[in-house]
């Protein structure tokens, strides 16, 4: 039993919260006792005359009423204002006034979260660099970038500085917070007395899902630190403090974004020819603040609940906030389903990796080059790719197809892939029809085993409907709220899984522009609507049946 004021877990035999003394409501007492007013016109202790509206004697304070065991008939009489019935009223709480002390108390946890995030990203960045170095060892020496720079410097008789790594520590930090890089390069100069220039812009929106756990872990720890230091804080106070942690954390990251990215400036002069090359990668200041503040607020708040009850942290909301059981069930359904889906994705990738290893055993005499390093890192890659595939799969089991769109000046490609109907062609080039026809004949993604994956969210929705109905919070509105929260979580996950590339090149001399775009993901609106309808229908049916059975 959880206290509706502070969320502290108490034993089932407790009448009052052991932390703040709040009375703990118990159905067995609420439904079995009724208040009975005595009919006597005089006080039985001092004989003073009493009125019907008095519960206590105005002369001596003697109690003029008593409690008796309620019968089934008396409990059903709505006319009796003294009958105590089982209440299904939602818990309520009052929002405290915002104070500057919230910001003060959030400062240390926010700083701690940012430092932990930097350290985790530093470890990931070093590991990635080490993996890349091992991979490049198997490439021929002609592909050595440093050697190419040296040879070009000698040929042009000039000193060409080596550029910094295109992807480094700062990029790891930004992309772990879902901040997409914007790359821009420009080339201009004079060659054989002909002046010209062109500019290339490139935007990439993609991240490995596993990396988002870096800021999640950091802000969770921040919330736990706050929760341990302020155990007496109410749910609204914890929410205010989590918002302050998120805002401070977002401010730190937005400032960090100003020093993130890559820049390179090169000037080449040879026999009257001049070439200037500028390249830079940048990140949005505003987007950095908003996304980091959202991540920081949500997961630091979860951390404050974790400090109260680490086993069932969102269950604390069930008896402390309006629709608390609904919020708890929507979050739990999403987390449980995502974990199962990622486990399936990792198992699938590991099985394919083992098949590849077995095939390589028969090719020991062959020079596999970089493939050897990839095979040696199979476990790490399986974890990363399995998490990515599992996250995408969780969106697709809500009857949402994975869409591929490629567009340029000459042709467009539009393909949809569903776990239930397979490959669906929108517009494709004529020369590629045979390829997609062969894929369709193989029945890609339409096997009965794949379709059974829809049972995972179905069973989770059934369980949620049962628990919501048992809590007394079942209604059209509560199930709609459940589905809305759950669908927003699925939508957020879908946005993490997409791959989007925008490319443009403008050549000033001919005023010619070339644009291209690539998109692989699930449509945001379709994903939200499908997951909302799916979750609402199954959860409502489960709750309705539970209510009918009593």
TrEMBL record:
Protein name: Ribosomal protein L37E
Domain of life: Bacteria
GO cellular component, one term: ribosome
Species this chain originates from: Priestia iocasae
Annotated TM spans: 106-124, 204-227, 239-264, 284-310, 331-350, 444-463, 475-498, 518-545
Keywords for this protein: Membrane, Ribonucleoprotein, Ribosomal protein, Transmembrane, Transmembrane helix
